[in-house]
Amino acid sequence: MTGRSPANAKRQFLLFVLSGGVAALVNIASRVAFSYLLSFELAVLAAYGVGMVTAYVLARRFVFVASLQSVRRSFAAFALVNLVAVLQTWLVSIGLRHLLLPLIGMTALVDLIAHGCGVIVPVFTSFLGHKHITFRQSGQ
User: Fold this and answer.
1) CA gyration radius, the chain
2) For residue 51, how far is the Cα from the chain centroid?
3) How far apart, in Å, do the first and last CA atoms of the chain sit?
4) Closest CA to 97 of 117, 114, 112
5) Which residue has the higher pLDDT, 82 or 139?
6) Alpha-carbon gap, residue 49 to 59, rounded angstroms
7) Rounded to whole angstroms, how far apart are CA atoms 51 and 118?
8) What's the pLDDT score for residue 124?
9) Ramachandran region of residue 110, left (φ > 0), alpha (ψ -120 to 50) or beta?
10) What is the pTM of this model?
11) CB under 8 Å to 43, separation ≥6 — which residues?
């Protein structure tokens, strides 16, 4: 038993979504900048790294504050959980950009829409991974 009430769990998830939203904005803004130098596919991956570091700092500071994990251990676990999330983000972004959006005739803001949707997809899997692996409390 972790002693967490449903209200605390909801608050924690809300803080995760808010901090993740900030990290997502950093991710998308950096992808736009990287797109001047890299292909869309590589820019998505490079931006994910920037967003991931932002997400780690915010999650450790504001969401999973009771974690007793060391920075080294929690960042390694964070990166591992994010391997799943980056795969989800990349597949959704590329699939939308190259398949679905052209299929429905979308021509405006295709990169932004595709990448934005890709960033949103792993919210729930990332929360569960970070709660139970990255920032787990002892006894969890």
Assistant:
1) 16
2) 7
3) 8
4) 114
5) 82
6) 15
7) 13
8) 87
9) alpha
10) 0.78
11) 31, 34, 35, 37
- Are 134 and 77 a contacting pair, CB within 8 Å? yes
Is pLDDT above 50 for 49? Answer: yes
Rounded Cα distance between 71 and 99, Å, is 40
pLDDT above 60: residue 140: no
- pLDDT exceeds 80 at position 139: no
Cα angle 94, 115, 132 (rounded to 5 degrees) comes to 95
**What is the signed CA dihedral for 43, 44, 46, 48, rounded to 10 degrees?**
160
Give the whole-angstrom CA distance, residue 45 versus residue 16: 22
Residue type, 48: Y
Q: Give the rounded percent of residues in the chain with a pLDDT score beyond 90.
A: 69
Q: What is the largest CA-CA distance in the chain?
A: 52
Helical ranges in the chain per DSSP H: 6-34, 40-58, 71-95, 101-103, 110-120, 123-129
Cα torsion angle, 26, 125, 3, 11, sign:
positive
C-alpha span between 127 and 6 (Å, rounded): 15
Q: What is the mean pLDDT of the chain?
A: 90
**d(C-alpha 121, C-alpha 109), whole Å:** 19
